[in-house]
Amino acid sequence: MGKSKAGSEGTVRLERRGAIAWVTIANPPVNALSQAVRAGLAACVEAAIADPDVSLVAIRGDGRNFVAGGDISEFDAPLQPPDMNDVLATIEGSEKPVIACMHGNALGGGLELALACHFRIATPDTRLGLPEVTLGLIPGAGGTRRLPRVVGAEAALRMILDAAPIAAAKAFDIGLIDAVAVDGHEPVCERLAATIDKTTLAERRVGTRALTEVQQAQVAAAIAQARQSVRERWPWSGARRAAIDAVERGLDGSLADALVQERANFDACRVSGEGRALMHMFFAERAATRLPDGDATTQGLSIGTVGVVGAGTMGRGIALAIAGAGVPVQVFESDTGRRDAAHVAIADHFKGQTERGRMNPDAAQAVMSRIVFVDTIAGLASSDLVIEAAFESLPVKLEIFAALDAVVGPDTILATNTSTLDVDAIARATCRPDRVLGLHFFSPANVMRLLEIIRAPGTGAATLRAAAEFARRIGKTGVIVGNAFGFVANRMIFEYQRQGEFLVEEGATPDAVDRALVGFGMPMGPFAMADMAGLDVAWWLRKEVPAMRRADRRQSRLADLLCERGWFGQKTGQGWFRYEPGGRKALPSPETDAVVAAERIRIGIKPRAIAEQEILDRCLFALVNEAARILEAGLAARPGDIDVIYVHGFGFPRWRGGPLKWADDVGVGHVHDVLRDWAARGEAWLEPAPLLARMAREGVGFAQLERKGWIGS
Ligand code: COA
User: Fold this and answer.
1) Which CATH class is domain 4-253?
2) Contacts of 348 (CB under 8 A, 6+ apart)
3) pLDDT tens, 526-550?
4) Sign of CA dihedral 260, 261, 264, 266
């Protein structure tokens, strides 16, 4: 055993074993390349190179990952020395071979570190990638220069633009790594230390290497193809355009020039709206399921088997989502007709998946076999979590919860998938209110990533923690929200759709409203979305739930008029739009236009031309305004939670960072003033929320609310 030396702040360790110096990056949880790690790495590598007894320097990561990239939390300010490029220059220029020993995640700066090493090996579990564009950034430590020299411009651009990590086996196939270390790193390093021919080191310095003739011949087509795919798939992505520019610039010329250009592009991206929005989303997603301080140490309950009550569309989707994540599911459905239909629908789902090549038949069979139907509610007795997805009626749910309470174990968590009912009232039907909460899936539940985790007043911290962990396990983005009508997602969408309907009453067409919002970046407009969800659902709510209507406020009858004619949207071929039989394309509907025109006459509105800006202001500022009320009422813990809900639940453009990050960019003062002006013209629904008014008055944005202590406990 050799000596051991800690890097600055103890984040990088140096140990010599025989002729090999092991440099271990230890910065949990993902070994991000923080300033301290860069300094430690430089110190340890320099010490290893200077040690006359060392013939090979091996760099590896401690814990579950090699290195998951630069430290994103440092990217809100200029990077502090040492510069990663200087550290990499020391490594690449070393007269002793340096080998990157990867495992787990080798992403972003982690892969760039490996590219500067002379050899690269990875255990079979390794994921290698340059995901920077998903954060609105580009590789900033030589990745755009070195990767094309190792795998060719086409493969490099694909990795950078798609941002999807590749497995070690694929990395070996494309020449990114020298070996897959099936027996771990040590044997490969020992072999290399004994056999390395130092004269080959120069060829292994990728940064200064010329492109091969074959690589050179592919360059022009690869760049053109990359630009074309960005135009088609990511027209909003300045980061991807900047990455292509950096790759192109780095293909010839000196390493130094390429690194200067790459860094300039990186810095421009780092401060761009897109970069700030996407980095905000990265942290907001991770913060969303974090419990308030004090709850954090609570032990989670372990969830092995899940029960689902109800095999309608929602129950089936939930069962598919859970079984797809490897968790066994038992489904109870009292209606035999619905149970049979569910069997057929689930079988059809897997048939479709295999026919379209999305799943192989064995995998489909394995998932299907995890879904078991039981005949009685007592059949769910062994579940650790039961999710009720029955008919949306309080008496029905109360009965189910009382029955479940009597048959399941004392620690079993009971969840309701209600979207409108009071979770507290449901919890009180049981003797275990601390083990009851809401789990609000979005339809189709096996596809949509958002999961609202509803905390009722009596919900225990351990229950919430277990639910948050479960959400993560089944691949959902869980967000903890409070128990109030509509929770967070639907509460906001009601205001957004309400303004859309008023705009149509005043003269816009549903198509014009939808086009404006699609132009903004939404995947579909409010009317196409309502038609897809089915207009009858909201109609039922308007009739049943008093909170949906206010006698003292303007109310549009348009949606009711469509429903009264049996026009429920896509499924009936007619709604806000018209649909060809079996089709999903929203076509303008003269019949709906006629209903709208007659209603305008009835209520005395003379249609006017409505500008796109007005459509965006009214629909989107209504969302922001309702979010302020939600924060004020403590229904969401952080503005970022609301951004996560809108990006994952409704496709709000991620690159704008969600509605509240976007509102900060537009200026809360401006949002407030526009709303205030509309309210002054009689639009009471647009009256600015008290919190928004205070923020505007004091010049505070949503990003500062937590720090100011204006929200949360
Ligand atoms: N910089 C700073 N913090 C990072 C980080 C990075 N590059 N990557 C992850 N983290 C933090 C997360 O914020 C999280 O912190 P928290 O526990 O305080 O919320 C923690 O590390 C764990 O990350 P998480 O994503 O929850 O873990 P995971 O095991 O699900 O996923 C990764 C691990 C590496 C796949 C994922 O974190 C990831 O994709 N990271 C970013 C990779 C990247 O884009 N690199 C390029 C940066 S320019």
Assistant:
1) alpha beta
2) none
3) 999 999 989 998 898 888 877 777 8
4) negative
**Right CATH for 306-483 from 1.10.10.10, 3.40.50.720, 3.40.50.2300, 3.40.50.1000:** 3.40.50.720
What's the rounded Cα separation, in Å, for the pair 540 and 375?
A: 30
89 C-beta closer than 6 A to ligand 1: no
Residue-wise DSSP of 486-524: TTTHHHHHHHHHHHHHHHHHHT--HHHHHHHHHHHT-SS
Give residue-wise pLDDT tens across range 445-490. 999 999 999 999 999 999 998 999 999 999 999 999 999 989 999 9
Q: Sheet holding 166-167: strands in order across? A: 105-107, 127-129, 166-167
Q: Which two tokens stand for residue 238?
A: 């300045």
Active site residue 388: no
Q: Is the model's pLDDT at 23 over the cut of 90?
A: yes
Same fold, 306-483 and 505-607: no
Active site residue 392: no
Tokens of 21: 């110096």
Which residues partner with 179 through β-bridges?
121
Q: Which of 650, 419, 428, 379 is nearest to 518 (CA)?
A: 650
Whole-prediction pTM: 0.93
Predicted local distance difference test score (pLDDT) of residue 3: 34
Q: Predicted confidence band at 4 (pLDDT cuts at 50, 70, 90)? A: very low
CA 185/CA 102 separation, integer angstroms: 8
Q: Which of 15, 74, 95, 112 is catalytic?
A: 112
The fourth-level CATH superfamily of domain 505-607 is: N-(1-d-carboxylethyl)-l-norvaline Dehydrogenase; domain 2 (1.10.1040.10)
For ligand 1, mutation pick of 11, 27, 30, 134 (most atoms within 8 Å of CB)? 30
Separation of 450 CA from ligand 1 center, angstroms?
19
